[in-house]
């Protein structure tokens, strides 16, 4: 019971201090806004992708080349997913197609060579003649569509080379399917639903949330020292309550403040900046709780081992800033060895977990990151217990 | 009155190679005001910390109300109200909330909690400032609030460690009066100070500590009797030199000589017999006398007699 009296008192004392309120709530939200806005150019995939117009492709089929493979190509190009991306216009000659390309009436030209079917059926590599336009994006879209088809054909060639012509015929049969089959070699996914895409606001909301959760440990450390410096710890220890209860009570109070901070940051960033925190509130809560526990454990260890409030505060500041930097919390750092160092930080595993939650990522990956956090927490709590037994928390 | 409420037996406390409390033996009776007198660094605060269960005892034992401090420190703490030497207050929390917080830790709840908090604040004269922050209080008011935070649970034993340091005479008198009242209400009081006058004014019995040792213990009358065979002569003069002090010290019938500022204090068996010699020595060294008085020995005299030093040296 006394633990909760101390925790509640700690909470009241914190929320009466203006600077604590500023540091807990205002500062992180301002930083999320500033970093999210200023560094949004580093992130492009999270912003809504504009609908692209289908690419206009002029296709030249040589006379006398109406074989099985060319039919497959035509069927493939009529598939529902493909027609959203390219519109094929049959053109008689390459010269005519080139004229259309130069006058920008089409974006891309494909010529099916005379011996295309023959080449494929004789087991040689399938090649189309491509003429690129001036629009880079259109070239990329059309190139991807035709490359996908050729990759599939060449895959069949490779099978034929290994298992013989029977295998090739079977492969062709499997690939072509029944007439009119609109089987597509391209699978269209949604990048924002289950991939590696998030906005700058989302990224920095996560990074700042984690950084400020770690700072809640610094606040707890200051509080432990203020009890010592103001001599109130001496009086507390003259009360019928154990020293450990005082320490735990204060840590619980600071943890509750950090939980309130988490809720406020998540709610306000969602309402003001539209930050999507995903559909896994439970896993998000577990991640934040583990980060808070880890932060409190670090605060306790540093406070128990430090001789003065300023040395503890400086060490905590250094640790938090360093962990945030190496984990890419201030700016994603595409340097291999820094990313490797980042993997040893709490921020890294916290960010991995929360970003995966935001991206509707695989549950097993989220659980794996949470597991790492839980492991780090367990180690930190064990170290805290050992340090407390050795050093104690005295006036 | 004669039951030992606090029993200290052969207690030793060391800090590295330094002995802070050296084989201390003491019995404090239930219902008395016990003064613990000694200069700074005498070991008073260390002794108090051990009695309160705040510090481990290296050797010996302490019991409070029959309960061993070593074995059941939390039970002992329930019976104690400790007024620390330094102010131990949350300056940004209202005065009433300071008292309430510590009262809750002593297990007070509900209506009783509210009554006790009001009673404690009224006792120290801060009922009208209950909602104000201690940060806005004067030094004397903070000292009184410091006391309120230690008495709201009606402890059987109140330990006051130099509670009047750095405050004005009016607040000091208020605190001393409060100590007497608390004692009349049934609490045993241990009052430490290096101000001899304070301890003499309120204590039933006094122990004098110096360098970790208890050098004297008893009622004020008993202690005075230890030095009453000597008479104290106080000479106020100018041009006091080392030479005159040295010659006075060499006199075979002058027990002790001390000097500070423009004052010479001497202890002799008979002032009438030695006065002529003393005046002769002073005249020989051109000391210009301003006044001369014979005084009753006090606790200060006893300390000087026992240690050769003044309490505030």
Describe this structure in words.
The complex is a heterodimer of chains A (395) and B (313). In chain A, helix 1 (2-15) packs across helix 12. Chain A has 17 helices and 4 strands. Chain A is mostly helical and 395 residues long. Chain A has a 4-stranded mixed sheet. Chain B is of the alpha/beta class. Chain B has 2 domains: 4-219, P-loop containing nucleotide triphosphate hydrolases (Rossmann fold), CATH 3.40.50.300; 229-296, Alpha-Beta Plaits (2-Layer Sandwich). In chain B, 37% of the residues lie in helices and 30% in strands. Chain B has helices at 44-51, 73-78, 95-105, 110-123, 139-151, 169-184, 196-202, 220-227, 242-250, 271-284, 299-307, and strands at residues 4-15, 18-29, 33-37, 59-64, 67-68, 80-83, 157-161, 188-193, 205-210, 213-219, 231-238, 254-260, 263-268, 288-295. In chain B, strand 1 and strand 2 form a beta hairpin. The radius of gyration of chain B is 23 Å and the shape is elongated. At the A-B interface, helix 1 and helix 11 of A face helix 2 and helix 3 of B.
